Amino acid sequence: MSRPDEPDPGGPLDADEAARLLSPWIGPDAPFRGAVLAVSGGPDSTALMGCAAALGSGLPVTVATVDHGLRPDSAAEARAVADLAARLGLPHRLLAWTGPKPSARLQEAARTARYRLLAGLAHEAGADLVLTGHTLDDQAETVLMRLCAGSGPAGLAGMAPARPLARGPDGLTLARPFLGVPKARLVATCEARGWPFCRDPSNANPRFGRARLRRLLPLLAEEGLTPARLARLAGRLRRDEAALDEAAATALGALRRDGTGGEGRLVLDGPGLAALPEAVALRVAGLALAELRSPVPEAPTYPPRLERLERVVLDTVLPALRDGRPCRRTVAGILLAAGGGRLTLSPEPPRRGRARPG
Question: Where primarily located (predicted)?
Answer without folding.
Answer: cytoplasm
